[in-house]
Amino acid sequence: MSFDYSKYKHGEVLPFLPPKQAPITEPDWRKVPQPKNFIVRPPKGAPNVLIVLLDQTSYSDPSTFGGAINFPTLDKLASEGLTYTNFHCNSLCSPSRTSLLTGRNQHQNSQAAVVDGATSYPGDTGMRPKTVAPLAEILRQWGYCTSMFGKSHETPPWETSVAGPFDRWPVRQGFEKFYGFIGGEKSLFAPYLVDGTTELGVPKDPDYHFSVDITNKAIAWIRATRSLAPDRPFMMYYAAGGSHPPHTPPKEWLDAYKGKFDQGWDKIREEILERQIKMGVVPPGTKLAENPPDIARWDTLSDEEKEVLSRQMEVYAGYCEHTDREIGRLIQAIDDLGEKDNTIVVYIAGDNGGTAIGGLHGTFNEWSNLNGAPEDVAYLKSRMHEYGGPKSYPNYAVGWAMAGSTPATWCINACQGGGQNQGMVIRWPKGFKAKGEKRTQYAHFIDIAPTILEAAGIPEPKWVNGVEQIPIAGTPMAYSFDDAKAKDRHTVQYNECTGNRSIYQDGWMACVMHRAPWEGKPRVDSYDKDTWELYYLPDDFGQANDLAAKEPEKLKELQELFHQEAIKFGVYPMDDRSFERLNATAAGRPDIMGDRKEMVLYAGMTGMAENVFIDTLSRSLSVTAEIVIPKGGAKGVLVSQGGLFGGWSLYVKDGKPKLAYNWLARERYEIEGTQVLPEGKATLVYDFDYDGGGPNKGGTGSLSINGKKVGEGRIEKTHGAVWSLAGETADVGVDAYSPVTDDYDPWDNAFTGEIVEIRIKHKD
Q1: Does the N-terminal or the C-terminal CB of the chain have fewer CB atoms within 10 Å?
Q2: Strands 13-14, 463-464: parallel, antiparallel or unpaired by DSSP?
Q3: What tens digit of pLDDT does each residue of 453-508 get?
Q4: Is 39 helix (H, G, I), strand (E, B) or coil?
Q5: What is the 3-state secondary structure of 216-284?
Q6: Closest Cα partner for 92 from 506, 581, 528?
Q7: Backbone phi and psi for residue 126, each to the nearest 5 degrees, phi listed first
Q8: In what side-by-side order are the strands of the sheet with 500-505?
Q9: Rounded to 5 degrees, what are φ and ψ at 139?
Q10: Do 222 and 334 form a contact (C-beta atoms < 8 A)?
Q11: Mean of per-residue pLDDT scores for the chain
Q12: Rg (Cα) of the chain, in Å, rounded?
């Protein structure tokens, strides 16, 4: 049975089909009029689209929202457009990003948590269903030039290797051009990048910085499309690396905020609220919510703690402003091309509130906390001279995330204000007359996609690529563009994150803190024991006055509403596990390694992220390299995993084999062979016998050439949970990206002999 197109309006079924042509019976082309070319173009006057998203920036970090950090680009856009002070995200990165790009709620995108922690539950597989077409795919099929630059973090980890599939990579999600990274974060000085689906090496540029790089590439792409296809509008998604950890701006920004945060987070919160009230960001009379008791009062800290913690915020602030200024370069380039008036710019200052991975003291190397080896204040102070530079991978203390959520509190993972309030500005000179005004209507990430479609005059498609679509859940925001007093149209919204949850309805919000981001386990052993909070936001934007005890009927009503919304959008079951979900077997998701205990590798295999490589953490294993040594000997890396902030490398130096183990950039261990590898075929084996007794323990390693032991040594500490997720990779024949050891050149370290194969095998 053929598809009945007559049931649908123009544009409700994509792709468009060319008109049917009657069979041609005349053989001579001279006698046959040429049919018109079938070319799809957007509706006349459809705007260009630029969506800018910052990463883990808190609501009140930017000066635009009363914060202490200068955001000149966001400020300028606000003066030329509209500032939405009541805008909201989900409480984690991947859920927010999929909601932004599809107009559907996180669980409709099957993105309950970060994609690295996916399970097999329907709303949590990490695999966006084909019933949800992204905005970029819709605009592409309408004739837009589409691109994405920066961070994705929506591709399931088992689909991120050269083996694919590539269905959920940006270039198969409607973006004809993608330049950036697929995972959750990267070094900003030596990132593992891809162009389309092609893996790229690190530029040999000592001044390289990711934020500058993607801006340069984005500007070049826009100029090219305006040169080659000026009749086609563009859609660009610029997903900045800032201000996600590592907090590492270019060196000239490290001291831009020197001394600006010495008064501490408590005083900073008071100053921010005062500015917010004066600017009209929050209503007069708004109160500060109290920080959780785990967040120390600044005046109780030692001088050493204050010195360390204030430095963390100085560096973070410089990082934020630099990122904003790079975005300014991009927007200025668009304006210089004469595209300002009909380009709708949506600038969202964050995707999930401030980060909590730094814990209560912050970190010099973020992977320390993730491996259960936190850094104390004394250690942090000892490395302050390197903090924020290329040899650090830092993250601030969570107290600064709380300051950034002013007047609310909390941060990433939380469904209270600090985890879901987000600053947003829209500029579109041709689309609305209002300038420099604020809008207080409730809005959410899911509202952006339908707003763009409405602005472009493009209907919501009901079928895309042969698949019937589920309806867009968001509400177009254009009703508020020129009417500051327009009644809210987005009246109900749920949020859920690893058991933390909230429900909003007509100004009321009920929420639960099931497990704080820095807590190892939930506060209660079942969801029905959770303590709910209740707030009326028009009178209490900061959520300082819990009304749960005074309004039990309203609370009960909202609890039931959450339950109904959870069923409607596929929230259940809620999975409150934390880092356990990073283990594919425990989480129940696919794993490209499966239960394999052995892996054979070949020359040229590079860019293998942790989730597509055999497990080398906290276990006994052997690495066997079958190699050929040329005349005169060889040098270089045979196989490596990780990099500057933790990893291991088997390599050859001065003709002898060596093993380097880098524990969290804090301790380094080396095992060196005493004999030179012979010319011709050779078998080099590295054996590691783990002490056992849990993760992070030590072990004994040995090196053998052709069956003869030539070296042995102790590795006293090992990574127990994670190397760096997608931040660094495993590589054969080279140590790509940042180097595990400074015993060889960071760029020129490729093995100069021949690698036949390398076999890694679990011994337990």
Answers
A1: N
A2: parallel
A3: 999 999 999 999 999 999 999 999 999 999 999 999 999 999 999 999 999 999 99
A4: coil
A5: HHHHHHHHHHHHHCCCCCEEEEEECCCCCCCCCCCHHHCCCCCCCCCCHHHHHHHHHHHHHHHHCCCCC
A6: 581
A7: 75, 0
A8: 492-497, 500-505, 508-512, 532-536
A9: -65, -35
A10: yes
A11: 95
A12: 27
Tell me how far apart the alpha carbons of residues 384 and 306 are, in angstroms, rounded to a whole number.
Answer: 12
Selection from 697, 725, 506 nearest residue 613 by Cα: 725
CA angle 364/368/371 to nearest 5° reads 170
Structural contact between residues 525 and 454, judged by C-beta atoms closer than 8 angstroms: no
pLDDT digits (tens, 9 = 90+) for 225-274: 999 999 999 999 999 999 999 999 999 999 999 999 999 999 999 999 99
Work out the number of other CB atoms within 10 angstroms of the CB of residue 708.
9
> Under a CB-based contact definition with an 8 Å cutoff, are residues 515 and 499 in contact?
yes
* E-only strand ranges, 435-476: 437-439, 443-444, 463-464, 467-468
The owner of tokens 């710019």 is 345
DSSP one-letter code for 381 = H
| Rounded-to-integer distance, Cα 250 and Cα 323, Å | 10
For 302, 502, 648, the CA distances from 364, given in Å and listed in that order, are 19, 33, 20
Average pLDDT over residues 575-598: 84
SS3 at position 448: helix
pLDDT at 723: 86
Query: CA 269, 270, 273: angle at the middle one, nearest 5?
Result: 85
Q: How deeply is 595 buried, as exposed, middle or buried, from its count of CB atoms within 10 A (0-12, 13-18, 19+)?
A: exposed
Instruction: Give the tokens for residue 515.
Output: 């497990």
CA distance 72 to 78: 10
Structure tokens at 650: 């088997």
Please tell me whether the overall predicted TM-score, pTM, comes out greater than 0.85 for this model: yes
The tokens describing 112, both together, are 């309950």
Rounded to whole angstroms, what are the CA distances from 161 to 647, 742, 759? 19, 27, 19
Q: What is the mean pLDDT of residues 285-304?
A: 97
Name every residue whose Cβ is closer than 8 Å to that of residue 375 and which is 6 or more positions away in sequence.
Answer: 361, 363, 364, 365, 368, 369, 666
User: How many CA atoms lie less than 13 Å away from 529 in the CB half-sphere?
Assistant: 6
Helix (H, G, I), strand (E, B) or coil at 193: strand
Report phi then psi at 223, rounded to 5.
-60, -40
Give the residue ranges of DSSP H helices in 647-726. none
Tokens linked to 500: 């933390």
> Is the four-CA dihedral 154, 116, 698, 674 of positive or negative sign?
negative
Separation CA 86–CA 239 (nearest Å): 21
DSSP state of 207: T
3-class SS string, 510-550: EEECCCCCCCCCCCCCCHHHCCEEEEECCCCCCCCCCCCCC
Locate tokens 């959410």: which residue?
444
451 pLDDT band, cuts 50/70/90, is very high
Residue in the structure block whose two tokens are 């109900």? 492
Q: Report residue 12's pLDDT band, with 50, 70 and 90 as the boundaries.
A: very high
Amino acid at 46: A
Inter-residue contact 639 to 658 (CB < 8 Å): no
Give the closest residue to 245 by CA, choosing from 453, 396, 140, 100: 396
Quick check: helix, strand or coil at residue 74? helix
Distance CA 712, CA 659 (A): 10
Instruction: Find out whether the peptide bond into 246 is cis, omega within 30 degrees of 0.
Output: yes
Structure tokens at 548: 């749960």
